[in-house]
Amino acid sequence: MHRRSPTATVCLYATLVLGALVMLAPLAWMLLTSLKTYPEILRNPPAWLPAKPQWENYRTVWEGFAYYRFFLNSVFVAVMVIAGTLLTCCPAAYAFAYYDVRHKELIFGALLCTLMLPAQVTVIPLFKAFAAIHWVNTYLPLIVPAWLGGNVFGIFLLRQFFRTIPRSFIEAARLDGASEWTILWRLVVPMSLPAVLTVVIFTFLWSWNDLFNPLVYLQSESLVTLPVGLLYFIARAEQLTGGSLGSTPWHLVMTLATVMVVPVIVLFAFVQRRFVEGVAATGVKG
Amino acid sequence: MNHRRAETFWFWLFAGPAVVGFAAFSLWPMLESLWLSFCSYEVIAPPRFIGLQNYAYLFAHDLSFWPSVKVTLVFTVIQLPLAIGAALALALLLNQPVRGRGFWRAVYFLPSILPQAVFAVVFGYIFQADGGLLNRLLALGGIHGAAWTTSPTWALPVLIVISLWGFGYPMVIFLGGLQNVPRELYEAAHIDGAGAWARFRHITLPLISPVIFFNVVMGLIGSLKVFDLAYAFSVAQAQPTPGGPARATLFYGLNLYQQAFGYFHMGLASAMAWLLFAFILVVTFINFRVSRRWVHYGD
Amino acid sequence: MFSRYRDALLWFAFALLAAAGFWWAGRRHEPPATPGRAVISWYVIITPLRDLYMAEVAAFEKLNPEIEVQIFWVPGSEYNVKLKTLAAAHQLPDLFFSGDVWVSYLRPFSRDLTPLVQRDAAEFGLDDFFPEIRRAMQLDGKDYILPEYVNLSLLYYNRRMFAAAGLPEPTADWTWDDLVRAGQALTHEGQDGAPPVWGSSRVEGWWGEWLIYVRQAGGKAFSPDGHRCLLDSREAITGLRFYLEKSSKHHISAPAGFEPLNGFVNQRVAMIVGGHINYWVNYNQTLGLDWDVQLLPTGPASRSGGELAIAGYSISQESRHPEEAWALAKFLTRPEAIAAVVARGNLSVRRSVAETVMGAPGPHANPRHLAAAYRQFAFGEPIPHHPNYIEIMLTVVQPEIDRMLLGELTPEEAGRRAAAAVNAFLATFDPAKP
């Protein structure tokens, strides 16, 4: 490979660093604001760094505004959704990858079509039905679809990966007398861990970041998940602080935003390579 | 039990839940919403068939329908090329021999996986007219900043800017595509004396055109469905009604949500949903047709 | 090859956990009624009065050991949508906070309280409610709300800023011209980076302020039967023009979009026309804010036109414990409860309480002109009872008003376009029409 000129190298890295700063600036401002006092956020010209980091803000929102509740709700929904996704998407992907059944491709194609279907098209009949069976204001509308293979993208991704496993492995296990169920969970899934992990993270992100469905289905304040909780907090901040602050307590809002973002960043830091490669694969093969 | 029947049995046992889920949560709601789109359904009373009146109202009378179509299209037309361009540019940069490629990739990708609601809230704070970071910085330079978030002129551009932080998915997919381009082709072109632009134009672009196509289709569908960003932005700005100021950020998805769950015009909202669905189908179809001309699938 | 027993055990554990998860996910919010004890649910908007309500409920449960009350808090901005959603899902709480802006839509889900009101009129003192409040309570002569609150449009002003400018405080005889004159004397454009101070705020984004001017100029939002919008009348347009010219001509208010956040609390605006009584608590908690109220300035056609909106308690039609919910509603609107609400900074819906407060001011010195506030009752107008009132005002009319403020439309165009749009809307969605 030919060598780059030193000028080009400097330009390349300068662009990368500058771009990265721009990308991360809002997050940095969010974090810094979350550590300030109320007078500090009003100061003009702006105070860049908090004079003394106010970790107390985190205690205030966590305990004072019962923010742990939104957090735990989010965790609960995410765990249930992930469990359901794995339990139903892995077998479905296995079935579509290995079994030869009439109309299989047709069924799979129909499933894939739903990837194009906007949530807005289905939400009204679903709301109507969930209301009729009294599921509105419970977590069931958020969770049950995941237990019925709701993550079609996950099925697709796993099927692509399962197909790369040599059939001879599976035949050998069958000859050993292993049941299909055992082969799936003891052989195929462990061999496909990268794909399974990608699906888990995608599912987590969708559930954790979702604003639309919780907004539609959860009505009680004690039930809502983080994204809705964040907006609730902004909507009622003035009332909660008893009007003692002249305007929105942005430092506390940013504290909440940080609480919401940190788990995602931590998780991403652990699995970023694998995850990013998973995403790249969807494009190339898709 | 013979082999074939056993296989059928296991297939339905394994794929059955997903197929049931498909029927219950996609197929049936889709058809029911088609039926509802021909009904007056205000929730107070059961649906009542009214033919095409919902569609007629949307096209002829509804004050929010066309503005929301316009907002969504303007957003798509401006945001999509910018996002795809930025994603491709960065992918090209990162495809160079760079130290710590994984790190850079992660940094540029990170904002894309964070909740849109958080971005809307944080940026709403930064862009605030009175006391926001941007205007304070501008004031340091003696510039009187605009009312970014409360002016109908600026609110949509602000949302476009915010959404540009989320180009991570197309960027990573481009990177994957670029890495599939055989190195030898570049070497050969280099020896032939082709410049950087010529190499990009005649080697890279044709070879990654399927990936560009994929990103355009996904980006298009994504921007037609924008909801979280616009809704969270409205709440963070304490707008009395989502999509303000003066419908400047009333995205189609937000308008649909408002009609359905803010005002309970469920029949009307179903008609909006089906128009959206039909539009997405048509756009995707056209996209596939057009792509035959410029997408080169390697054989 | 594989340990079947261990796998079976693991799947069993998974199934148990999943079952527990589903139980938790689908758990109903109202606990099963313990024998002999009725559980009633109550939806309330989160306000600074949260602690007061908790205390009231505790006192109520002590008095009525056979009733258990469950409170659900909802942020004000979400309340309307939440309540409608629950109504649609047939999950309305037994008792909920309702107001004349919501009652028309929620009417099919709300219990007709007339028989209960008539039965217990003497007990809870029906005659004690102000006649204006009593009128606003009713829909077609039937009662759906037991009132607790009233919001009334008033003129709010900052006493310190008036004194600093050497201006006499507003009087009951003020007109729009007086408002403009005083506003101009109080306005200071920001210099040397100091933020500007405005003579008057301008409430943007909803009808709170502009509707006052429309009505005081002799206009109306709707025809009396509610089937036509009248914002294109010459009188209505006069009102809209005054609203616009507060900034564009008289320069007493910030230009569109630059309204200082919470300007009155931060002492960056000196006067508010309209305002909201909910904010009294906040004003009184703000150190250094010395404020008062006065009758609204008189418009070219009339003195009345300010808002008189009531809110109180409604009972769900599907409630299994209407008598218990009714008992709680009565408890929350008894004179002592109203007095506690009023003591935090509020107007009273009951005459007896109002008379007591005016005789002996509560812990807060402000507002001093309480008598003026109660006089304004007579000039307040109830909100039109239309099921889609909020939607029409916020989504059909308001964007045209917003565009007017931005200079895109003249007041004539804004009024005409808004009226045409509302009439098209009513032609399609008016549930009152056959």
Q: Would you summarize the structure shown here?
A:
With 286 residues, chain A is mainly α. Chain A has helices spanning 6-34, 38-42, 56-64, 67-98, 104-113, 119-132, 140-143, 152-162, 167-175, 180-191, 193-209, 212-217, 226-240, 250-285.
Describe this structure in words.
The complex is a heterotrimer of chains A (286), B (299) and C (434). Chain A is mainly alpha-helical. Chain A has a single domain (63-285), classed as MetI-like fold, CATH 1.10.3720. Chain A is built from 14 helices and no strands. The radius of gyration of chain A is 24 Å and the shape is globular. The radius of gyration of chain B is 24 Å and the shape is globular. In chain B, helix 10 (196-224) runs antiparallel to helix 13. Chain B is mainly alpha-helical. Chain B has a single domain, classed as MetI-like fold (Orthogonal Bundle). Chain B has a two-stranded antiparallel sheet with strand order 1-2. Chain B has helices spanning 3-36, 53-60, 65-94, 101-113, 116-126, 133-140, 155-163, 168-179, 183-191, 196-224, 228-236, 252-262, 266-294, and strands spanning 39-40, 48-49. By secondary structure, chain C is of the alpha/beta class. Chain C has two domains: 38-151 and 309-371, D-Maltodextrin-Binding Protein, domain 2 (3-Layer(aba) Sandwich); 154-306 and 381-429, Periplasmic binding protein-like II (D-Maltodextrin-Binding Protein, domain 2, 3-Layer(aba) Sandwich). Chain C has 17 helices and twelve strands. Chain C has helices at 4-26, 50-63, 76-88, 103-106, 114-124, 131-137, 159-164, 176-186, 210-216, 234-248, 280-285, 322-332, 335-343, 351-359, 370-376, 389-405, 411-429, and strands spanning 38-45, 67-74, 95-99, 138-139, 142-143, 146-152, 154-158, 198-200, 269-274, 291-294, 306-315, 380-381. In chain C, the strands form three sheets. In chain C, strands 1, 2, 3, 6, 11 and 12 form a six-stranded mixed beta sheet that branches. A four-stranded mixed beta sheet of chain C has the order 8-9-7-10. In chain C, helix 2 (50-63) links the parallel strand 1 and strand 2. In chain C, helix 9 (210-216) crosses helix 10 (234-248), helix 10 crosses helix 17 (411-429) and helix 16 packs antiparallel against helix 17 (411-429). Chain C starts with a helix and ends in a 5-residue tail after the last helix. The relative contact order of chain C is 0.15. The model of chain C has no long low-confidence stretch (mean pLDDT 86). The chains are: A mainly alpha (286), B mainly alpha (299), C alpha/beta (434). Chains A and B meet through helix 1, helix 4, helix 5, helix 6 and helix 11 of A and helix 1, helix 3, helix 4, helix 5 and helix 6 of B.
